[in-house]
Design brief:
By secondary structure, the chain is mainly alpha-helical. The protein has a domain of 97 residues. It has 3 helices and no strands. α1 runs antiparallel to α2. The longest helix has 48 residues. The N and C termini lie far apart (73 Å).
């Protein structure tokens, strides 16, 4: 049994998940940059000499907030990676479906739903990070 599929048909089945991966990749790049900045800022705050107790307490609060931000960004990045993985699996299932003629639409729907759900969770965590960054700024400014 030989399967003779035009390459265009296989490529067409993979285009939508590839576009999703591309868009998520841009968000992932932004999150990784924010994560790296938060890590660097946390290290900088932690290694800053403390001249008085008020400054020391403020620095400790900032370090605590920055650490929370790092954890939130780490989770957000993890959910985005899961979204990309789900999109990759959709591509794989689409190609398998075309080659074998098995109906894998139910599995593809599950992975599409999980990819979108993990994307939404990541975006919510991204928003939480932005809120925490404002709190860290308030602490730094002494508000």
């Amino acid at each position: 049994m030989t399967v003779n599929l035009p390459f265009e048909q296989v490529l067409s089945a993979a285009v939508t998940p590839l576009v999703l991966i591309s868009g998520v990749g841009l968000i992932l790049l932004s999150l990784v940059n924010r994560y790296n900045h938060a890590i660097d800022r946390t290290r900088q705050l932690y290694n800053t000499p403390h001249e008085n107790t008020d400054l020391f307490i403020r620095r400790q609060k900032q370090v605590s907030h920055m650490y929370k931000r790092c954890l939130i960004l780490q989770r957000s990045i993890g959910f985005l990676v899961m979204s990309v993985a789900a999109s990759g699996i959709i591509i794989l299932l689409s190609v398998i479906q075309l080659i074998t003629q098995f109906n894998l639409d139910f599995l593809k729907t599950i992975f599409l739903f999980s990819g979108i759900l993990t994307l939404v969770i990541s975006i919510v965590l991204f928003f939480v990070d932005i809120r925490l960054s404002m709190k860290a700024l308030d602490i730094e400014l002494g508000k």
